[in-house]
Amino acid sequence: MIATLKRSPALPAILGLVVLCAVFSAMRPAFFTPVNFANLLQQGAATTVIAMGLVFVLLLGEIDLSAGFASGVCAAILAVTLDQMSFPWYLSVGAAIATGVVIGFLLGFLVAKIGIPSFVVTLAAFLAFQGVALLLLEEGRNVSVRAPIILAIANKSMHPWIGWAFGATAVAAFAAVQLWSWYRRRAKGVTAVPLRLTALKVGALAVLVIVTVSILNQERSFNVRITSLKGVPIVVPIVVALLVLWTFILRRTAYGRHLYAVGGNREAARRAGINVDRIRISAFVICSAMAAVGGIIAASRGNSVDPNTGGSNVLLYAVGAAVIGGTSLFGGKGRVLDAVLGGLVVAVIDNGMSLLNYSSGIKFVVTGTVLLLAAGVDALSRKRNALGG
Amino acid sequence: MLEVRGINKSFGPVHVLRDVALTVRSGEVTALVGDNGAGKSTLVKCIGGIYPIDNGEILVDGKPVHIHSPRDAAGLGIEIVYQDLALCDNLDIVQNMFLGRERRRGIVLDEPSMEHLAEQTLASLSIRTVSSVRQAVASLSGGQRQTVAIAKAVLWNSRLVILDEPTAALGVAQTAQVLELVRRLADNGLAVVLISHNMNDVFAVSDRIAALYLGQMVAQVKTTEVTHAQVVELITSGKSGTIA
């Protein structure tokens, strides 16, 4: 069982989280409070969602440097359609995500069909999208987002009982899926994971859910008479739902399998009859569409959109989140869960160092160093595997 | 099982295959030999549907067929194991064996049934060198990879398996293992074409030898009726005494 844990690719990120939380809590007690915990989740959500999309592109051994500004452009579409065209919120969200899909298709087409390296395509797009955001927002205006539902995404929390119901559903669903797979494997007579291990996994998830929900359900308002603030932030179920959806697609469908195959050995995938171009384009589409979702969350969090939404450190934080979580920059290896774990690490570093009153300069240097460290571990483990044959 | 008649193939001005004829029988290993550039790989790729043929006929079980893509070839039960293996290192054995042809229940992959079939296939070939079918291919040795590649070809009820230099990169013990497997395929009733440079391999497992020389089929003989030296002569000069 220890061996299984040791082989888990999530281990470095989880250890990193524990150490970081311990250090920050010790240095600044304000870090380890329900209010900061909720803050941290809401701050990290946009980066995490963008990182989830990036996992798909990274799995192919490609990169999308424009994901940050793509999220900015989509957020600008959201804000402009809401504010100036008075779209209902769902149409604006649809327009933002559709923009992401179009962007992704364009990038994927240039990479897969024309054959320009993704680094160059997305570097060009990085600059161009910055310009598009400026144009959409008419030379840098700040457009407020006022739609209550959009604002609720990253600012409001669920009723405590809904939080518990959601947590219980998640644990029950996880247990059901594990048991069903165990039962099917037994029926086919192939070696199944021991039930003991399955029970342990379900138990661990249950403990995590109970601790998280009970912390978040505590009163976080500084003055209860003015307003009450408690419950699981609404972004949490959104991120969890996206995690489940993309994990299912990557792990349980032929499409996901083919994505790994193209990332592992493109020629082998082609010979197996897989439409490699279509897989590559689709990965960019998913990446940019997820960037759009990230942009919507960022717009909600910031209550507004300006030309710098999705700019500065957003892309680096997102790539960092995926790589810190254990997704390889060389393709073929990675999970959507990596983006969530890595996203938490990045959010903790960012949040903790802000509480310690470090300047942005130091924060950037530290985050950059952590990203390099994660990429170094990735490169070294790849080298070791190659030597081991 | 497979018959090829009068195939021509040119790449621009280069005439690679000239009126090539080849007959492959079920239950036999046919060794395809020839020097570098003789056209072995081109012939195989024509049969496998990767290159279109300029003219000529391909017959399966006596009926003319048209092969335009690897899918067509697979549909006729023809599988090719390429020299560079075409396995994905990051996937495990089961995932590689079913790549591009996954079994599903609805949209969900049917992992237990794929794993079960992979285990059965490996067992039917008496492959005992891999400990778990859930091992990543990256962790396998060269011989094990070749074994997996061959098992992948056999999985699809294929009737003709073409092996492109399966032992080229292997050590002595692993070569013996793979050759044993090649022999077993033929003994199980499959037609096997073995491309090889190594005369020891050719004489160890093949029933017939087909020799290509500068794009022409110069001889198709029974292995028992020729000597080592005669085959080498066929490969290097295109003729050997009375044979061609």
What's the overall average pLDDT of chain A, rounded?
90
Integer-rounded radius of gyration of chain B: 18 Å
The arrangement of helices and strands of chain A along the chain is HHHHHHEHHHHHHHEHHH
Return the structural class of chain A.
Answer: mainly alpha
Helix and strand sequence of chain B: EEEHEEHEHEEHHEHEHEEH
Strand content of chain B: 25-35%
Question: How many angstroms does the end-to-end distance of chain A come to?
Answer: 26 Å
Share of helical residues of chain B: 25-40%
Distance between the termini of chain B: 24 Å
Shape of chain B: globular
Q: Can you tell me the CATH class of chain A?
A: Mainly Alpha
Strands in their spatial order, largest beta sheet of chain A = 1-2
In the CATH hierarchy, the third-tier topology of chain A is known as ABC transporter involved in vitamin B12 uptake, BtuC
Number of domains of chain B: 1
Q: What is the mean predicted local confidence, pLDDT of chain B? A: 87
The CATH architecture category of chain B equals 3-Layer(aba) Sandwich
The number of distinct helices of chain A, counting runs of at least 4 residues, comes to: 16
Tell me the Rg of chain A in angstroms.
Answer: 21 Å
Identify the CATH homologous superfamily of chain B.
P-loop containing nucleotide triphosphate hydrolases
CATH topology of chain B: Rossmann fold
Can you tell me about this structure?
The complex is a heterodimer of chains A (389) and B (244). Chain A has 389 residues and is mainly alpha-helical. Chain A has one domain: ABC transporter involved in vitamin B12 uptake, BtuC. Chain A is built from 16 helices and two strands. The model of chain A has no long low-confidence stretch (mean pLDDT 90). Chain B has a single domain, classed as Rossmann fold, CATH 3.40.50. In chain B, 32% of the residues lie in helices and 27% in strands. Chain B contains eight helices and twelve strands. Chain B has a six-stranded mixed beta sheet, sandwiched between helices. In chain B, a hairpin with a 2-residue loop joins β1 and β2. Chain B is globular, with a radius of gyration of 18 Å. Classes of the chains: A mainly alpha (389), B alpha/beta (244). Chains A and B meet through α8, α11 and α12 of A and α2, β8 and α4 of B.
